[in-house]
Hints:
With 408 residues, the chain is α/β, with parallel strands linked by helices. It is 25% helix and 23% strand.
Amino acid sequence: MFKPDIADHMPELVLGVRNYASLEACKDHADAVYFSLDRFSLRARACDITGDSLVRFVDKVKSNGLRAYLTLNTVIYPDDLPALDEVLQLVSSSDVDSIIAWDPAVVMRAIDNDIDVHISTQANVSNTDTVDFYGSLGASRVVLSRELTLEQIRTIRQNTDVELEVFVHGAMCQAISGRCYLSAYLLGRSGNCGECAQPCRWGWSLVGDDGSVVKVDGKYLLSARDLCMIEHIPELVDAGVDAFKVEGRLRDSRYTSCVSRCYSQALDAYRNGEYTHEKTKDWKTQLAGVFNRGFSTGFYFGNPGPDGLSPDLEMNVSNVNKVAVGVITNYYPKVGAAAVNLQESHLKLGDEILIEGKTTYLEQEVVSLLSDAIPAKRAEKGQEIGLAVDGKVRENDKVFRLEYTAES
């Protein structure tokens, strides 16, 4: 059975992306990306890529040297089957490497059309026999259940040759493998069809039969902390899995950039014998600066206790805020500069900024400002300025300033 050689078997780093901008944000760090169409995705709002644009998007992924995985992981109802066949025809005409699915209708139709399949974590695969079952159908990879411990993953790895993928970072769900009905019951928005309203993240009160409100710690009673395994890369690599997966197709491009960079650096450091506690502290600090609900290690080291929940934390506890500054009105490639209309806030030398658009992602420091063609240290809201930029930007791209809270 499988015996990993760490020198030759470092896991593939797989990032979720929603558009060209988030692809741009992780292209230098990821090995593969997974993404959605506007149909059959558990992230229905991640619908920037359509059937008409699939081939172009996949070609862009491949031009950056990455593998392309398309998620088709919703429940499939009888009325969905004709549309599913249309999507699989689109996949066959593209250069998609694999689809991520779990519904047998999708899996069997894909295999019949010679489309490679990765089994989604929605299938809740939790043992070797189930892994081998999907392998016998023709699936090349299984994304294991997020409820497995590290020791259970090692056992599965030692007894199968099917590729295994595990989540290492991102949102955790209250329901087993995300198979939740709370949103559907409360709001008519099915999480299993990509429309989850995340009521588990709401503030709740615990009320007794007599109407009295029970005092508890915090009000976000169902909200789980985010998974973060940056401090346990050696254990994960040594377990012999084939891929590390990062959740977050609905996150902004800065999240995608930061998480992909940190985990890529961690993998490189471990490969080169340079992985240290001090480095993990720095990576975790960086990760705390993008969207998060607090961090835990999920089920990797046993069932999470109270530390796995965040009853006193709001939806996002990042210690860095994105402040809207203005928009790009022109780009001058010969001089590496852009015109910016400061519609919403000021800008000064030394500010850390983001420039984002449909296909743009740029993170840099403000090193040069021009106001009325004169060098300036600061420009105020309402001004039109010249800004030195580190890469290509486009008209209507948005400019943001990063501001750090006192806790950072």
